[in-house]
Amino acid sequence: MAAGQGVTVVPAHAELITQQAAQIFNVSRPHVIKLFDEGHIEYRLVGRHRRILASSLIAYQRSELGGARNAADELAALPEDLGLY
Question: Does residue 63 sit within a domain?
Fold first, then answer.
């Protein structure tokens, strides 16, 4: 908020539609559907429509951030391992 970025507050038990999930991740709706189809995010079908728990989105986001942090740590240690630092 201090940097002028928007904030969305969603209860963890709320069910979202694919467009809302895409807006939260700031990606396209087809990309979110691809994540569902690949099994990265849990969802349920209501008729032909997908519904996603906000807690499932948060869990996916945390797992992705953890992987990104690990990759960044490995990259930061690489120069030391190669004796360049």
Answer: yes
For residues 61 and 25, the answer to whether their CB atoms sit within 8 Å is yes
* pTM for the whole structure: 0.65
The parent domain of residue 20 ranges over: 15-81
Nearest CA-CA partner of 32 in 50, 44, 59, 13: 50
Closest CA to 50 of 26, 19, 24: 19
Residue 3 lies in a domain: no
Residue 21 in any domain: the answer is yes
Give CA–CA dist 44/31, Å, rounded: 17
Q: Tell me which H or E stretch contains 44.
A: strand 44-46
Read off the amino acid at residue 26: N
pLDDT by residue (tens digit) across 57-81? Answer: 988 888 877 666 777 777 777 777 7
In a domain, 5, yes or no: no
